[in-house]
Design brief:
With 388 residues, the chain is α+β, with helices and mostly antiparallel strands. The chain contains twelve helices and 19 strands.
């Protein structure tokens, strides 16, 4: 960082990625700041600057002491240890030590007392919400939403005929011929533990998964105009059932509410959907499989006169970006669901689904809403429907 950049950064004031401190004498208080940055989006700690943005400056002796304090705090008072970068920047009022803390890859980080700190605006706070801490473990790949227990749903809640047909088709063996009891078999397939179905097992094979998982549904609505209208809609449906059923019903909802175009077909033909079927299949499968199951909210589908929107709970995981997914990159948030979905849905799980969707319909728009914690796909319609 150059002096001019330092002055510009200080001029913008403190925010969630920039914290000012005149000095540090205690490794534990420094560790808390480092932990908060690591558990959020990373950031920079500027030491030698007051809260008001006045550069108080550091001496050469201060710089040596503080660099050692940063090293000790990051290695001995942070769990797991991290490696911040320090820079000594010259300023007319004295030296400023800039400590750059990268976003953590092994979240959640804790101080030596086990406290998990996160940034809250320019300040920090203790993380106390279970869902918030779970998402940190999820980001680190230590737990996945689809493996959480679906409390209240046991192996006895399976749609046994459906599961038996699946088992016979995939393994070419009868379920009745297995030597293992059904609870143990389900556990070996990563679908249950101690007879309790996990979310993947419940959504894939339970007869009525929404009995205990009522928010993991699809809420769909079709409006005559281009905005949500609480008083006027053309079609509405709460879509429930096993994942494969939810997929087919969601696809059916969108298709029946789209216009059909003749293309090169005869005038007597039923025509083709405005949006190619493969595009809808890929986008709906992705919404159901890759949504964040730590968030208690449904997938939402809106059909407007000029577009279709598919909104999934949870922004793109980790460092995945819209540019990444358009290039075929993927990060599997729910590995159990993904592995079984390839056998139950038109889903391949190789990062190629978005590419196929875009190839068939290039106008698709993606919005990674990290503040609202959701991912939105917008599909503009070529032929807008007449508004009533």
């Amino acid at each position: 960082m150059e002096t001019s950049e330092l002055i510009e950064t200080i001029g913008r004031g403190e925010d969630s990625r920039h914290q000012f401190k005149e000095d540090f004498r205690n490794a534990d208080s420094l560790a808390a700041e480092i932990v908060a940055f690591s558990n959020t989006d990373g950031g920079q700690l500027l030491i030698g600057v007051s809260d008001s943005g006045q550069v108080t400056g550091l001496s050469a002796e201060d710089i040596g002491r503080l660099n050692q304090l940063v090293s000790n705090a990051a290695s001995q008072s942070v769990r797991p240890p991290i490696n911040p970068r320090t820079e000594n920047i010259a300023h007319p009022n004295g030296l400023v030590l800039v400590v750059t803390v990268p976003p953590g890859v092994s979240k959640p980080y804790q101080d030596k007392d086990g406290t998990i700190w996160v940034k809250s605006g320019a300040d920090k706070r203790r993380a106390t919400s279970r869902e918030e801490i779970q998402r940190m473990f999820q980001t680190a790949g230590l737990i996945h939403g689809d493996e959480l227990p679906a409390n209240g749903l046991s192996v006895g809640d399976l749609d046994l005929d459906y599961f038996s047909e699946f088992f016979q088709r995939e393994f070419e063996e009868s379920l009745e011929d297995q030597q293992l009891p059904l609870p143990k078999l389900m556990e070996n397939m990563n679908l249950a533990r101690e007879s309790v179905l996990n979310i993947a097992g419940a959504l894939l094979f339970a007869a009525r998964p929404q009995f205990r998982l009522p928010v993991f549904i699809v809420k769909a609505a079709c409006y005559p105009g281009n905005e949500i209208d609480d008083s006027q809609y053309l079609d509405s449906q709460d879509i429930t059932g096993k994942l494969a059923d939810v997929f087919q019903k969601s696809l059916g909802f969108v298709v029946r509410n789209l216009s059909r175009v003749q293309s090169n077909q005869s005038v007597n033909s039923t025509g083709e959907s405005e949006i190619p079927r493969i595009t809808l299949e890929e986008l709906l499968a992705n919404a159901l499989i890759h949504r964040d199951y730590f968030i208690s909210a449904p997938v939402r589908i809106f059909v407007f006169a000029n577009r279709v929107e598919i909104i999934s709970p949870g922004h793109l995981p980790n460092n995945l970006t819209i540019e990444n997914i358009k290039s075929g990159n993927s990060n599997i948030r729910n590995p159990i669901l993904a592995s079984f979905a390839a056998k139950l849905l038109p889903y391949r799980g190789l990062g190629s689904g978005i590419l196929r969707a875009i190839k068939a319909y290039p106008m698709i728009e993606f919005t990674d809403d990290r503040i609202g914690n959701q991912f939105k796909v917008t599909i503009p319609l070529n032929q807008a429907k007449p508004q009533s």
